[in-house]
Amino acid sequence: MEYISTRNRKNVTDSLHAVIKGLAEDGGLFVPSEIPEAKLSEEQLLSLDYDGLVMHILGLLLPGYGEEEIREIVTEGYRDKFDVPDRVALKHTAKCSFLELYHGPTSAFKDMALCLLPRLLTAANRLTGNPDKVMILTATSGDTGKAALEAFADVPDTGITVFYPAGGVSDIQKLQMQTQEGKNVRVCGIEGNFDDAQTGVKKAFEEVHVKGVSLGSANSINIGRLTPQVAYYFYAYAQMIRDGKLSYGEKLNFSVPTGNFGDILAGWIAKKMGLPVGRLLCASNRNRILTDFLSTGVYDRRREFYLTASPSMDILISSNLERLLFYGLGMDDEALRTLMGDLSGKGFFEAPYELMEFIRNDFDGASSDDREAFNAIRRLWEQEHYLIDTHTAVAYACAEKAATPGKTVVLSTASPYKFASSVLEAIGEKVSEDCFEAMDKLEDITGVPQPPRLKSLKEKS
């Protein structure tokens, strides 16, 4: 399988070099020239555990590694890092089901891929004979930063620097990053928002060249970060069947809290690989640029930026949308460059009618502000005794709005304890300004246990 740049179809590489490079030299994102079929029968799908699904998907999307290499990467990458046997958990409520993706070392869904990325990267360097040391440059709106730092800490011949918006992450997210141990880790808060951090990182990839050092990315712009996320859509589908909630072949909808568009794009890739996915609901918070784009066909970043209670979604430039646009344009790199040039130069672009038809064939858009998200948290707790975080609440509130026919799984992307103060406020309790007091109070009131690693942050702060 070849990987090609969205900005230049002649920029062709293999899966190993695509992982090493992260971002193409021309500023584009690497995509597979064709999306392979998963070719899983019902018996095969139900026989695979989570690790087995990841191995199968990575074997198809990253064929340069080989079966045994993939097996070792997944087995060792996930070993002893999760607090549930299946890495993830599917919980059912009256209206929908929730796929809990936050049972890893940093209590966020980014662990599902970032536990594997350092091993994917070091194996790619070994298999290609690349002698360079690797410096990971990553922008984060909250969760990616800690998960990347945790994953790359003290990995030989690598360094990692994470840039985050100083005023745009939660106290717990900031503490998780600032207390990360490791001789090769650096954290830098910037003035500005996530888009500013991400733009700076992309410029560094284009302009910084140091002999003996390769720049790499832990953001979902790196195909090695994106591909493992495809697997949990297959897991959710299989578990819905095991739990008697779905019949094989029946379509399943997903509501995904969306910022940089990587998580929901993984769902689209799963659908193209043959998973019976119905609608993919792109759930936005008050920064509803994707909702407006899906409605109007105009992507316009010239708007007010809001800091919300779901900070990991506070994004106006959704990088992974470029991959979907490229496929929707029939891999026309010139047309894609025109759209991206308009976004960079004018601050907006208008998608052709045919492109929007392509996108709307699979995606719906909805948005929910903090008030609606908080109401969703409260209702779910009062009615179902089930606790969710603010990002998951946006996706749940959007799913309620959309009322898409059929069964829906909401991707639950973070532990409620990462945003304990907001969750307390949502369920009608007095909010403590101290994040650790808020966590303790939330546990006392709800009986839902704190993740041990979040609880231990108090000792490090």
Walk me through what this model shows.
- The chain has a domain at 93-107 and 226-418: Rossmann fold.
- It has 21 helices and 15 strands.
- The protein has helices at 15-21, 42-47, 50-61, 67-78, 111-114, 117-128, 143-152, 171-178, 194-207, 223-242, 262-272, 289-296, 321-328, 333-345, 353-360, 370-384, 390-402, 420-426, 435-446, 452-455, 457-460; strands at 3-5, 8-13, 30-32, 89-92, 97-100, 133-139, 158-165, 185-190, 213-216, 252-257, 277-284, 298-300, 348-350, 363-367, 407-412.
- It is globular and about 55 Å long.
What spatial form do the alpha-carbon principal axes imply? globular
Number of helices: 21
Tell me the structural class.
alpha/beta
So what's the CATH class of the domain at 93-107 and 226-418? Alpha Beta
The overall pLDDT, averaged over residues, is 94
CATH architecture of the domain at 93-107 and 226-418: 3-Layer(aba) Sandwich
Give a short account of the largest sheet. Answer: 6 strands, mixed
Question: What's the β-strand tally?
Answer: 15
Distance between the termini: 47 Å
The proportion of residues in beta strands is 15-25%
Tell me the radius of gyration.
Answer: 21 Å
Instruction: Show unreliable segments.
Output: none
- The helix fraction, in percent, is 40-55%
CATH topology name of the domain at 93-107 and 226-418: Rossmann fold
